[in-house]
Structure formats: structure tokens, C-alpha cells
Design goal:
Number of strands: 13
Helix content: 40-55%
Radius of gyration: 42 Å
Strand content: 15-25%
Mean pLDDT: 83
Distance between the termini: 36 Å
Length: about 550
């Protein structure tokens, strides 16, 4: 058993290494850059150093964040609601019950906040994940279905998947680095395994290209300190894997002749006894009538007394036999009426066990073998297998929400096409401000020794300052910056318009009255035309993902 568990662990760790391919790392690097641009950290350490060494400003004009926030608003303005439709009119109550259960699970999981986070991941990182799970401790141990969001950088998908819902993926792995104490809180029954687990030293690399020391942002990869227990002691961080696989499971579609239960048999016997009692009374009356006719015939001399006695005995025996025959026939008819053919689906393993009982085999009318997908879950902490289970679902419980599907698990986000224009906008503003700084703070060319340098550095840009220079030297000459071309000032406006055109989010949608149309009808038209791309994304990607969820 230990050897088999070790093999499972080794296979999953090896599969994770292969899933974390160079293509996947490139996608995460690009997505991390998009995420940093969205949060306003848009300059790398090299760019900041070059700007500062050249005396240029290193500020940014962040136009990406408001655009993404507006796109997220349009996508999450209406909360998802599930509606079940019955196959026929009598199913309306059952359908309403399913819809109410889905709404309850969504409310119980704070689904609106999770949904908003997933949509933001899809817009910024290209893909967001929502997970359907069961919390067995809720409802006092009865369990509840809950929704969770998963960090896209923690999910590793089969690279050969082509479906935007990953329904064709062979495997799907969630990999995290977690402290042991946190894992013990999640799996208290596996405390001994977790304490003895050893990390596999496959920690995630830092995919950020920003200046960590000068950045205002802090990500998980930036936290280099160790974890600590509740007692303040060092806690070891180990790798944690949730691995999902699709497996074909053999099932048997059985049609079984189900005999009456003991309660039904008692009900049948009671009904038979009642019917027989009524029949017996009717037959006894007929027997008395026949007996009276025979006695009258004896008195009238039509038959002899011995014949009458013989006929009476034969009638009595016939009545008893008829009652017993009716009893057997009634029981048989009622058993046949109560016996029903039920359709049941069981695994092939259960069917093989059932075939060992000849009585059960005799009641099987038909058995049809077929295969269905089932999800196999393996949970690993370090080098220990915590548990594995077969989930009674056909698809992965982790549902992707992509922005732009590329035919691979590496989707593109809405930030990607905006980064170029954002850099252009930042650079244009930096150059204009730098040129203005040069014009207001002149540089001077002078002969060495011609001026008191400290005095000129302190007062050369002060209004009304009197600056002296030494006789016998040429007067200092100001170095004027070259004037910017008038067309250069249109670059910023063009960049803003291009970003609005690319994203479909215009300034008027964000309350900018200066750029809004003159008429209310024009404002509605711009809102309609601008949000068509978002509506198409919602209709073609988000709604199918929610239905799949």
C-alpha cells in the first residue's frame, strides 16, 4: 500500500513538472505583467533606473485600471441566477426546487464577490477559475455545496486541451505552497501524514519583472519569510496538490424484476383474505341452496337419499377446492400487479458481486454495459498521499472563465492589447514634462572659474535673481531645450482614443461630460455600440461557463 501511494505521488509530481512547461511559464510571465500594469506598476527596474539617470520623471498615467473596472462593472452588473425548466408540466415544482437550491448555494458562498474576482482574473490575467466543492462540516456535518475562486497561477491544465471549458483535458492540477499548520486545519484527520511530509522543492518561480524594492505592490512571491505557527515557532512550507483526472468507469444498466416487499406481501394477504371471505359467504349461500334442492328432491321421490348425501359431499368438496384455487389465483394476480421492473445503474464491480447471488440473478431481466466519465481526485501534501476519491460527476469541478480563447489553456486578457498604448501614453507625458522642466530650469554653459558655482546652482532659477560672473571670462550662455513639434501633443489624445476604441470603454461611460455626445440619444447609442463586445463575450463565454458551473 505504501509503495502504491509513493508511486501515485511520484506520478503526479512528474506530471506537474511536465504541465509547468516553458509555454506555461511564458503565459504566466505575460499575465503577471498584465496584472502589474492593471495595478499601476508599469515600469520595470531597468526603465526606472534609465529615467532617473537621465533626469526624467518616472510617473505614469494609468488608463488601464479604470477601463478594466468599467468592463468588470458591465460584466457583473446583474447577478447570475439559475433557472431550471421541467420536461413537462408536472415537473414545475421539482424545477423550482433545483433553482432555489442553486440560489441558496450561491448566497451561502458569497457568490457575488467570488464572481467579481473571477471576472477580474479573466479580464486581467486572461482566465479566471471558479470551483464547486462540498464543505462536509457545514450544516452540522450534513455538508453544503459551496463555490470558491482559484488563483489562475495555481492551476496547471493539460496543454493539449482545446475546449474553452477544458472538457477535453486529461488532467487538471492545482498546486499551492502552504504551511503545515494550515494544511492540518484543512485535513485534521491526516495530521500525522502532514507532519511527516517532506517538500519536493518545486516552488513557483518569481515571474515579476518589476523593481520589488521600489514597488508599492506586494505579491505572494515577494514574501520570503517563513511561515509561523500559532505559538510563534517556525512552520515548514510544503507543496500541496489537488489532481483531477478523467477516468472511464464501467457501469451496468440493469432492468430488475422487483418482487413485493414484506409489507406489500402482508397487504396482499390482507386483501386476499378479505376477498376470499366475501367469496366464501357467496359460495356457502349457493351450497345451502343446492343442498335444499337436493333434500326437496328426496322428499318428492325424485332421487334416493344416498344420492343426495353423495351430491352434498361432492358440492362441499368442490366449494373448498374452489376457495383454495381462488386464493392461489388472487395471490398470484396481486403479486404480479405489485411486481415491477425497476431500472438501476450500478458499477460493473457491484454487478459482479451481485451475480454471486442466484436469486438476484434470476430477477435480472436485462443488463446493458456502458462507460461514463468520472472525476478522480488525488490530494497530496509534499511526498504523502492524503487521500484519493472518485467524484460522482462527469466534468471537472473547476470551471474556467476565459476572456479570449486561443485554442490552448493559455488565454489572453483584455489588458494585453492596451499595454502598448499605455506605454506610449506614459512616454509621451514623461517627455513633455521633462521638456517643461528643462524650459523652466535652464542649463548653463560657462567657462570653468567664470562663475561662483554654488551661488548659480542656488539662485539661477529664482525670479529676479542677480547673478554675477568674473571679469575676463565669457558670459555664461543658457542652453535652451529644443521645442517639441506641435504634432507631438496630439500623441496623448490619439493614445487615449485608441485605448477607448480597443477596449470599447469610452470616457463618457465613466462620467466625462466633456467627451459625451450632445444628445441623450447619442449617449445611449455610444453606450450600446461600446458595450457590444462585452455583451458578445458575456453571451458566448461567460454564460456557457455559468451554465457549465
Amino acid at each position: 500500500m505504501a509503495r502504491q501511494s509513493k508511486k501515485i505521488v511520484d506520478n503526479i509530481v512528474d506530471l506537474f513538472r511536465k504541465a509547468n512547461s516553458s509555454e506555461r511559464q511564458k503565459w504566466q510571465t505575460d499575465s503577471q505583467k498584465n496584472y502589474e500594469f492593471f495595478l499601476g506598476d508599469q515600469l520595470t527596474a531597468t526603465e526606472i533606473e534609465d529615467l532617473q539617470s537621465g533626469g526624467m520623471p518616472d510617473f505614469i498615467i494609468n488608463r488601464i485600471t479604470p477601463v478594466i473596472e468599467m468592463m468588470k462593472f458591465f460584466a457583473t452588473a446583474n447577478n447570475p441566477r439559475w433557472q431550471a425548466v421541467g420536461a413537462e408540466g408536472s415537473d414545475s415544482d421539482v424545477a423550482a426546487l433545483h433553482a432555489d437550491i442553486a440560489d441558496y448555494c450561491w448566497y451561502n458562498s458569497n457568490g457575488n464577490s467570488i464572481y467579481s474576482s473571477v471576472i477580474q482574473d479573466a479580464l486581467v490575467k486572461g482566465i479566471g477559475y471558479m470551483q464547486v466543492d462540498v464543505d462536509p462540516d457545514q450544516d452540522r456535518g450534513m455538508g453544503e455545496v459551496v463555490f470558491n475562486s482559484v488563483n489562475p497561477f495555481d492551476v496547471y491544465v493539460d496543454p493539449t486541451s482545446r475546449d474553452f471549458l477544458f472538457r477535453d483535458a486529461t488532467y487538471l492540477i492545482i498546486k499551492k505552497d502552504m504551511p503545515k499548520e494550515q494544511l492540518i486545519r484543512l485535513f485534521p484527520d491526516d495530521k500525522r501524514k502532514i507532519n511527516s511530509a517532506q517538500p519536493s522543492n518545486l516552488g513557483n518561480n518569481d515571474y515579476s519583472q518589476r523593481d520589488i524594492s521600489g514597488s508599492e505592490l506586494i505579491f505572494n512571491a515577494d514574501v520570503k519569510s517563513s511561515a509561523y505557527t500559532k505559538d510563534g515557532e517556525d512552520d515548514e512550507i510544503i507543496d500541496y496538490y489537488e489532481s483531477y483526472f478523467k477516468e472511464k468507469i464501467a457501469y451496468m444498466n440493469l432492468f430488475i424484476n422487483m418482487p413485493p416487499s414484506p409489507d406489500e406481501m402482508r397487504e396482499i394477504q390482507s386483501e386476499v383474505e378479505e376477498n376470499l371471505l366475501s367469496l366464501k359467504k357467496e359460495m356457502e349461500v349457493g351450497f345451502e341452496e343446492q343442498k335444499l334442492k337436493l333434500l326437496q328432491a328426496v322428499q318428492q321421490g325424485e332421487i334416493i337419499e344416498e344420492r343426495a348425501i353423495l351430491e352434498i359431499e361432492k358440492a362441499e368438496k368442490s366449494m373448498t377446492e374452489e376457495l383454495e384455487r381462488q386464493r392461489v389465483m388472487m395471490i398470484s394476480q396481486m403479486e404480479e400487479a405489485k411486481t415491477r421492473i425497476e431500472n438501476r445503474v450500478i458499477t460493473e464491480f457491484e454487478y459482479d458481486m451481485m451475480k454471486e447471488d442466484p436469486i438476484l440473478v434470476a430477477n435480472i431481466v436485462d443488463a446493458i454495459k456502458f462507460y461514463e466519465n468520472r472525476i478522480k481526485l488525488c490530494v497530496i501534501a509534499g511526498d504523502k498521499l492524503l487521500y484519493e476519491d472518485i467524484l460522482q460527476i462527469k466534468e471537472y469541478p473547476i470551471v474556467p472563465f476565459v476572456y479570449q480563447h486561443t485554442g490552448t489553456p493559455y488565454a489572453l486578457g483584455a489588458v494585453s492589447p492596451l499595454i502598448g498604448k499605455q506605454r506610449e501614453l506614459n512616454k509621451a507625458h514623461q517627455i513633455m514634462i521633462h521638456n517643461a522642466n528643462l524650459a523652466s530650469n535652464l542649463r548653463w554653459m560657462y567657462e570653468e572659474g567664470s562663475v561662483p558655482e554654488e551661488e548659480w546652482e542656488k539662485y539661477s532659477s529664482s525670479p529676479g535673481a542677480l547673478l554675477k560672473y568674473r571679469q575676463g571670462f565669457a558670459p555664461p550662455q543658457p542652453v535652451q531645450p529644443l521645442p517639441l513639434n506641435s504634432a507631438f501633443y496630439g500623441i496623448t489624445e490619439n493614445a487615449k482614443r485608441d485605448m477607448e476604441y480597443t477596449s470599447g470603454i469610452y470616457s463618457s461611460m465613466q462620467g466625462d461630460t466633456g467627451s459625451s455626445p450632445e444628445t441623450y440619444r447619442g449617449l445611449l447609442a455610444m453606450d450600446e455600440y461600446g458595450t457590444r463586445r462585452i455583451k458578445a463575450w458575456m453571451q458566448n463565454i461567460i454564460e456557457p461557463s455559468l451554465e457549465h458551473l
